[in-house]
Amino acid sequence: MPRKTSPATGRHRISRRTKIATGGLALALAVGGIVVATTAGRTGEASADPADASFFLDIAKVPAGVNVNKALQGKGARGTFTVDCGRNENQHFNPDNFIAQPGIKNGAQHLHDYVGNLSTNADSNNKSLVKAGTTCKNGDKSAYFWPVVRIDTGEEEEQNPPATQPDRAGSASDKASSQVDCPDVASKLPDVPDQAMDEVNRNLDLLDKQIDEANARIAKGDLKTPQDIQNAVVGPLKDKRAATIDRIAIAIGRRAAKPTNLGGLAACVLKQNGQGGLDNGGQNSTGQPAELPGVNDQNEVAGNDGEIQRVRSATITFTSGGANKVVAMPQFLRILYGDAKQSTNGPANARPSWTCTGFEDRLTDHYPICPANSKVERIHAFPNCWDGKNIDSANHRTHIVFADQQGKCPQGFKNVPQLVMKLVYDIPHDIQVKGQYKVDAFPQESHNPRSDHDDFANVMGQRLMNQVVKCINSGQRCKQ
């Protein structure tokens, strides 16, 4: 978005700040019997101010070598899988977070940038995510989202673009509906020989299709009781899945040891109104409905004002994270990077995320001031050790943790592909020097760059995830 160069009085900006800060004061809103409260500070004060000058640092002052992610790139399997999901050209913004604040509309209190899944909102659930479209060229329906970066000069600026509104009603309806919940198969497979890959992938596609057909049958509405659904859908689905999984085992067994532990993956269970389902942590993805105040007509919310900066590039890459071998992520796995509430929760989950292009051998927890011909960059390398069972956990963290500096996981955890997001911005050099850019954040964070974070939900089909694993483990550099 081009910036105005003419002088401005600043009056419009001041009035908007006062409005934002006032609107964030001691909010308490009862929705569905639940009270949600937040406090943003005294009227008209710092909640809508620029980031503190102490948050900015010349990248040249950051020691080289302080990027453990880069060090791990030299270890383990060297393959990568890169997905092109665009730069949020369709203006998908909202202050929701269906992973960390499920069910709470505007629960993030800051604006998120989205690529991938087109439906992402507070009520997103496995069914609504699978049904949605995507910005990813290869059909990956995963949800990738992070807080926007804004320029705030304190002057009147051009209007921010209107946000694309997600189908919240549709997502809520999908959450309330009955649906089958089935074990992931790709994440349980051993190494698939090259000669068996096509047949295995065809059958992984078939497993996904069988689930879609089962949910479509339930959605017709003529099956009136859970027992009706069990008899007409869930029971027959188990038989179909058993035959398909057996074909996968046979295909692998022709070229390698036949897997013998896949039989228990055939049975699915019925999930109704967000309840029930598999014992895999999925219940932690269902929150109680509530709502906080949303964005104004400038896409500003809870003290987050300024001109939204679209990323120059958003590079989504899956790597080994230093592991010699990775296994597939289960579909619907939720992963958080960083800590949006680090001032409250402490530093344990906060990560240095900021650097400049050409200086990726170092990361800082300050906003970088980059030299000429270098651009502001955020690098988010996600946790990559999965507990082998759960797609979510009560704190949305303990089911997936970081590998150590040798790429090894804690006992009982498995290396899965590590998602690395690289976000590059065209922030003018004078704006950097003046400390006039900032990341959206919860009010209590005051735009602290340490609160930078990122969110991911894996909605890849099992075939696609199997390709990710194959590319990484075989050392290929795959791009789609």
Would you kindly provide a written description of the structure presented here, covering whatever features stand out?
It is a single chain. By secondary structure, this protein is α+β, with helices and mostly antiparallel strands. The chain is built from 9 helices and 26 strands. It has helices at 11-23, 68-72, 126-131, 168-176, 194-219, 226-253, 342-345, 429-433, 462-474, and strands spanning 27-31, 34-38, 56-58, 80-83, 93-94, 104-105, 112-116, 143-147, 149-151, 178-181, 269-272, 275-276, 290-291, 307-309, 313-319, 334-338, 354-356, 367-369, 376-381, 385-386, 400-401, 414-415, 418-425, 437-439, 453-457, 477-479. A hairpin with a 2-residue loop joins strand 11 and strand 12 (275-276). The longest helix is centred in the middle third of the chain and has 28 residues, at 226-253. Residues 1-48 have low confidence and may be disordered.
